[in-house]
């Protein structure tokens, strides 16, 4: 790596904010001998441009000896972040490669078939005459030979050990704050009827402990191996059989790795097993602190690493979570340049939103939201609902209060479509979102205000969370929630001249700020110190709807009346 050229590699014609100073600090950290640099850069600081400059410091083929690795990877957990990179003209030399399911086969009669179900994977010994023009293999070949290959973290991890995407000189991970949690998610093994077609033929025991889980995994590995051999014996597979084969192959690999890791006395991984309903019921095998998994899939893939995020809150805790030695790691802070008065926090708390108190608190929160809507009659708003249960209750309450024509929501299957429709709308609609605290750019008039309905603490019913709390890891618990809050607060203020208000509805958020105060970045602590109670209008649904067009109100009224009866032949496609 050649950190000295980091400024020459910056892709924009000029710097903004603290980009120049931040890159100088990154250069100094690498030149001091650090292998990993954590770059804490707040929303709007242009992390992708910083990432490109760092990746450009990788050795090239002309600068390396035969045994030295060259070039760089750029990777991010967020698909939307990769989409933004692909569309940014300043980052055009980042060569993007995606998974096979994102490309369509070009063979006659197969143009609607994704490459992961094309004849080359369905038919044994199929000789594709147009493989050189296949969009997936073409992009893969190009990316493997380009100076900077860009991909999602999932694809990056899946290609560990491949001949095509081997070790490189520099690896840059954007939005890296959840790296440990992402690794745990990717390494989790789900055993259920949806993942194992022959589930009904299995005698699934009541797994009372890890030893029983390992024995069951060994037996299941043999069963799935036999099924894969049956599928391989067919001259041609259907698309469903292809999906089954690929799923079972991944499952076999995961089960094998679980058994090997569990039996390794030097492994740092702790495994937990969930089987809520005992004998015959689905099983989830989850790793905690999967250092070995990250070593194989990430840390062995490069010489030098830059990990960028707005919310790497505690260096030592982050390093412990992902298996890094803090002495090999530097933390670089990129200062915030957005005026604090443009990103105010408002206390509109109405009580606790825990499960036991939600039924009492949520109607009060809904009334506050109507008042907030009246304060912003002509501006779009975003409600962070935290869960689909809260979203559904809140949608019903707001409709009952008479502001339904201004409210939109989404389900699990139509997240992207509903979000895009809301962003395109000319009305000041309010979007009830679930798990959209990250990777959402709502600059300018796309959104001027938002509400956090609930403190986003990790689910204590998750066995990994419960295990950590049993071990006294309360600092991790509070940091995880604070990280999500900070990410959420950054959705509506995206540039120094942008502005947007964030309203806090759950009393537990105030408690969280006190408990995690020492882990707050200075720029967010400044927001918390300035937090105030807003002067809201009285509860007036008509005023909250004053900016909504008459046609939108009529469409909503027709939609509600139709959904109530459910008898219209076009009720499922109306509007």
Structure overview:
- Helix content is 39%, strand content 13%.
- It contains 20 helices and 16 strands.
- It has helices at residues 19-31, 47-55, 79-87, 119-122, 135-145, 153-158, 179-187, 210-232, 239-263, 291-297, 315-322, 358-375, 388-400, 415-424, 463-470, 474-489, 507-515, 522-529, 541-544, 550-565, and strands at 36-40, 72-76, 94-96, 148-152, 168-173, 189-191, 270-274, 283-288, 302-309, 329-333, 345-347, 381-384, 407-409, 430-433, 449-452, 501-504.
- It has a 7-stranded parallel β-sheet.
- The longest helix has 25 residues, at 239-263.
- It is globular and about 70 Å long.
Q: Hey, roughly how much beta strand do the residues contain?
A: 5-15%
Largest sheet: 7 strands, parallel
Gross geometry:
globular
Number of strands: 16
Write down the overall mean pLDDT. 90
* Total helical segments: 20
Spans of 5+ residues with little confidence (pLDDT < 50)? 561-575
| Spatial strand order of the main sheet | 3-4-2-5-9-1-10
Oligomeric state of the chains in view: single chain
**What is the end-to-end distance?**
55 Å
Given helix and strand content, the structural type is alpha/beta
Share of helical residues = 25-40%
Q: Using only CA atoms, what is the Rg?
A: 26 Å
Topology:
Elements (H helix, E strand, L loop, with lengths): L18 H13 L4 E5 L6 H9 L16 E5 L2 H9 L6 E3 L22 H4 L12 H11 L2 E5 H6 L9 E6 L5 H9 L1 E3 L18 H23 L6 H25 L6 E5 L8 E6 L2 H7 L4 E8 L5 H8 L6 E5 L11 E3 L10 H18 L5 E4 L3 H13 L6 E3 L5 H10 L5 E4 L15 E4 L10 H8 L3 H16 L11 E4 L2 H9 L6 H8 L11 H4 L5 H16 L10
Parallel strand pairs: 1-9, 1-10, 2-4, 2-5, 3-4, 5-9, 11-16, 12-14, 12-15, 13-14, 15-16
Antiparallel strand pairs: 6-8, 7-8
